[in-house]
Amino acid sequence: MNTPFTRFAEWLAAAEATEPNDPNAVALATATPQGRPSVRIVLLKGWDEQGFVVYTNLTGRKSLELKATPFVQLNFHWKTQRRQIRIEGPVEQVSDHEADAYFATRPRLSQAGAWASLQSRPLPDRATFETRLEEVLQRFPDEIPRPPHWSGWRIIPESIEFWQDRDGRLHDRELFTLGTDGWTSGLLYP
User: Fold this and answer.
1) Which residues contact 189 (CB under 8 A, 6 or more apart)?
2) How much is the mean pLDDT over the chain?
3) Cα distance between the two ends of the chain
4) Strand runs (DSSP E) across 103-188, as ranges?
């Protein structure tokens, strides 16, 4: 049987060949403790059979919601491919080693931004942020270490749905579900 990860790799590779910008962009849906949904676009920065990884500020709204309600949904939509993938499951924070390794690959300005941003909090004006950014660049003239308030989240898939557009809205939908004996799959009505 094709695993959902084999199919994901194929579909992501096809998107990387045709999407003009950020084929790794994915909608991440979280919920507040009161059950209010919150969706934003993030960038997938790693994946394997253990899960799908995104990185962020641990004190921002996204992380606070992930800590309070650690179950999410991802939705990739590749317009050029006329495809979507929906992934559902719980989340866990990545290890410090994994976060450090990824942070080291980020451009210097992105590293500095991770220190300077008080993510999701009110910003009085752009100049305030630019001043904070300049202070970080002066503080770390060489290597910029990963801030202690910045890390990654791994979404551990329990279900993965592959959706392919078809004429007349007669779409193909295949749902993979993780059970005690591994992954099973079945079709869904469009």
Assistant:
1) 173
2) 96
3) 22
4) 150-155, 159-164, 172-179, 182-187
- The token pair at 95 is 């290890």
Catalytic residue among 106, 132, 169, 173: 169
Backbone angles phi, psi at 161, to 5 degrees: -110, 130
Q: Are 173 and 189 in contact (CB under 8 A)?
A: yes
Respond yes or no: is residue 169 known to be catalytic.
yes
| 4 vs 133: CA distance, rounded Å | 41
Q: Which helix (H) or strand (E) holds 115?
A: helix 108-116
CB 85 within 8 A of CB 12: no
For residue 47, list its beta bridge partners.
52
Question: pLDDT tens digit string along 90-105?
Answer: 999 999 999 999 999 9
Read off the pTM. Answer: 0.94
